[in-house]
Structure formats: structure tokens, C-alpha cells
Amino acid sequence: MSELHPPPTIEEFYKFCTQRKLMAVRCMKCRHLMVPPRTICSQCHSSRVEWAQLGSKGKLVTYTIVHVAPTLFNHMAPYAVGIVEMPEEVRLPSIIRTSRLESLKIGMELELDFSPRPQDPSWPQWPRYFFKETA
Ligand SMILES: [Zn+2]
């Protein structure tokens, strides 16, 4: 059995984030999309998967406000983390950035954005995507 592409890795996922691309892995057999990437389809167990870029808009499915944050995010607290549903029918966890936490609403439209590279070298692999309110 020959593989044209090496199996997707989480390292590649982060690399795509630094290129401002949010990528899922699509099963080439049943078209199921997965984030974070997996090498085996969680639906049909096929190992024929490929990278697929997601769009930049999503909807807020649920969220919670974090008041006590991990050290790296202390300066951001309180902040919102939530689940965002993409039109491609995948859901992913994300930090939700807003100027007013009380304006967050379930079902509201959100826009994808990316943070610059982290200054903290002890955490090089933090996924740098987040969602924010649409302008
Ligand atoms: Zn599949």
C-alpha cells in the first residue's frame, strides 16, 4: 500500500495556523470532516484522509466565561471560550474575543482570526486561531 501524503499531524495543523489557515481533515471515503486532525476517520475508519481548509465564518453554539485563567491567559481574564459551528458542519473549541462579554449570544455569527506567534517559548504549540464578533 503506498501513501501519497504522510498522515496529517497536529504539528501541521499549528503550522497552517501560523499561515492563517484553519484546516480540518476530510475523509476521502465518506467526506466526514474532523478538527483537530485525525489519521483515521471517526465515522468509517478509513485511513484515506486529506487536509481541507475551513471558511472564516462560524456560529456560536455554546460558551462559558473564564474568570480564573491559566497563567498564560491571566491578562485576558475574564474571557469567553466556546464551541463554534462551521458551515462545513464541524464544531471546534475556541476563545471568543469580544469587547463586551455580555453581548455574546448563542447562535450569533463569528469571524475567524489569528494571533501573532506566542512570545512564550514554553508553549510553542498553542493553536493561534480564535473567533471574534463580526464587524
Ligand atoms: Zn470516513
Show the helix and strand layout.
Elements: H1 10-18, E1 23-27, E2 33-34, E3 49-53, E4 57-66, E5 79-85, E6 91-97, E7 109-114, E8 129-133
Parallel strand pairs: 6-8
Antiparallel strand pairs: 1-2, 1-3, 4-5, 4-7, 5-6, 7-8
The protein binds zinc ion.
Zinc ion (ZN) binds at residues 27, 29-30, 32, 41, 43-44, 46.
Give a verbal description of the structure.
- The chain has 135 residues and is mainly beta.
- It folds into two domains: 10-53, no CATH class; 57-133, no CATH class.
- Helices cover 7% and strands 35% of the residues.
- The chain contains one helix and eight strands, in the order H-E-E-E-E-E-E-E-E.
- It is globular.
- The mean pLDDT is 88.
- The structure holds zinc ion.
- The site of zinc ion (ZN) has 8 residues, from loops.
- The site of zinc ion has 8 residues, from loops.
Overview features:
135 residues, mainly beta, 5-stranded mixed β-barrel, 3-stranded antiparallel sheet, 1 helix, 8 strands, 7% helix, globular, binds zinc ion
Globally, the shape reads: globular
Strand content: 25-35%
The spatial strand order of the largest sheet comes to 4-5-6-8-7
Q: Which hetero compounds are present in the coordinates?
A: zinc ion
Q: From the helix content, strand content and strand pairing, which structural class follows?
A: mainly beta
Order of helices and strands: HEEEEEEEE
Helix coverage percent: under 10%
Largest sheet: 5 strands, mixed, barrel
**Runs with pLDDT <50, length 5+?**
none
| Rg over alpha carbons | 16 Å
Number of helices: 1
Overall number of strands: 8
Distance, first to last CA: 49 Å
Provide the domain count: 2
Average pLDDT across residues?
88
